[in-house]
Q: What sequence folds into this?
């Protein structure tokens, strides 16, 4: 038996290219992206930042003028290149060719303000033209004006772009200098390609070092900002943890004592009335429920990544149990429901329940002995909630408890979060009314 092995020839794009090939491919891609992709795109030079430590000390009018300082510097260099180009020809300033040579030298410098990459290619194209216009000159391939112009263009464009673009511009300049010397420089006495390459290399090296330093400073500033934010968050979390621990130690202890005493109180009285036993049982249930809510809320305060328990949140279906609990606490309350009862989004159900709960708690605290009424209205565009209590009876054995107003604030925040409306204020008979409308959009109805 003969075994035959078939080897498939490598195909392009299979990732089997050599590292050198991929390096050259990436280099050419970078060259195309930096110098050939839309080279004459409009990229105006922006104003100079005036947030430096020195400019902060000068008057506002001077700071405004300093914003255009780069434009003024480029304009001054353009004027200088125009003069050098006009007076360095075969007939310095003596004919139209000298003026045209100066204008051609200044044009790429001015173009760096709006089209930086295009200005570089324009400078390359202008160099042989100015040399040919001044046929009797001794400089090749850059006349003095073109030399200053091209060097200025390299520096300005490198400042406006990035170090990789500066490297590619220097490579193209070197290629142009070599080709100009080989094919067209034979009749000239002196070629300045070498001085151009050396001078531009040092200038671009300084610009690249500035870019590296500027980038490093920005990264350090960003890192410092992130570090400061993390430090602030850690300090806040530590403060929250401390507050949570203190709340737990103080409030949980007293609530536990209340629950234990409420459970033990009926056994301290011989043949206690049924109403007394039921009252102490209600006190204990409320204390245990408050402890559970306290631990859940403190868990949110303690840990930033706290996960809420899987226990379902209360809805309007639990409203009857809430009213029973409130009646056991001594508040006479009745409920009225209008409209077609339907299931609403969880956020609306929970907010409505909490608003009713807080309104009834306020009635217990601020108007002990008064009666209350809860009205729930299912309408086409949402849910209406109205909780109103009457005035506190006179005389009353129980004094109202003072409050800080956080309950009403919490209600308004819940309503604002859902985009609803709320009114709260005293009634004509001396009571208090809370009226809320929670909208339900069409999307929410579909989700429900």
A:
């Amino acid at each position: 038996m003969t075994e035959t092995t078939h080897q498939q020839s490598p195909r392009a794009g299979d990732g089997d290219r050599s590292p050198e090939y991929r390096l050259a491919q990436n280099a050419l891609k970078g060259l195309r992206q930096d110098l050939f992709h839309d080279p004459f795109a409009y990229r105006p030079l922006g104003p100079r930042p005036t947030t430096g430590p020195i400019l902060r000390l000068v008057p506002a009018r001077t700071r405004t003028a300093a914003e255009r300082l780069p434009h003024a510097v480029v304009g001054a260099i353009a004027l200088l290149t125009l003069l050098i180009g006009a007076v360095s020809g075969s007939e310095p300033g003596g004919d139209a060719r000298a003026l045209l040579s100066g204008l051609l030298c200044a044009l790429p410098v001015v173009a760096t303000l709006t089209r930086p990459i295009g200005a570089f290619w324009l400078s390359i194209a202008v160099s042989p033209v100015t040399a040919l216009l001044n046929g009797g000159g001794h400089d090749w391939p850059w006349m003095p004006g073109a030399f200053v112009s091209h060097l200025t263009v390299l520096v300005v464009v490198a400042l406006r772009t990035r170090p990789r673009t500066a490297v590619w511009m220097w490579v193209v300049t070197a290629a142009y200098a070599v080709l100009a010397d080989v094919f067209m420089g034979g009749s000239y006495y002196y070629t300045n390609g070498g001085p151009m390459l050396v001078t531009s290399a040092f200038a671009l090296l300084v610009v690249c070092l500035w870019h590296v330093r500027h980038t490093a400073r920005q990264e350090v500033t960003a890192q410092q900002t992130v570090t400061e934010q993390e430090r602030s968050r850690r300090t806040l979390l530590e403060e929250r943890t401390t507050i949570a621990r203190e709340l737990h130690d103080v409030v949980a202890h007293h609530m536990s004592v209340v629950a234990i005493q409420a459970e033990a109180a009926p056994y301290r009285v011989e043949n206690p009335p049924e109403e007394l036993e039921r009252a102490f049982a209600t006190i204990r249930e409320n204390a245990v429920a408050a402890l559970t809510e306290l631990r859940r809320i403190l868990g949110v305060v303690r840990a930033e990544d706290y996960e809420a328990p899987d226990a379902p949140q209360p809805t309007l279906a639990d409203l009857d149990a809430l009213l029973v609990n409130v009646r056991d606490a001594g508040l006479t309350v009745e409920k009225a429901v209008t409209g077609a009862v339907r299931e609403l989004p969880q956020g609306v159900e929970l907010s409505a329940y909490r608003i009713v709960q807080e309104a009834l708690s306020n009635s217990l605290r601020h108007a002990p002995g008064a009666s209350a009424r809860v009205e729930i209205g299912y309408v086409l565009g949402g849910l209406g909630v109205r909780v109103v209590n009457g005035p506190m009876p006179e005389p009353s054995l129980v004094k109202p408890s003072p409050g800080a107003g956080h309950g009403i604030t919490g209600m308004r925040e819940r309503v604002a979060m859902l985009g609803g409306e709320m009114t709260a204020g005293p009634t004509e008979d001396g009571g208090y009314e809370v009226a809320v409308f929670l909208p339900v959009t069409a999307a929410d109805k579909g989700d429900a």
Summary: The first helix runs from residue 19 to 36. Strands lie at 139-140, 190-191, 332-338, 371-379, 382-389, 421-426, 432-439. The radius of gyration is 41 Å. The chain is about 60% helix and 10% strand.
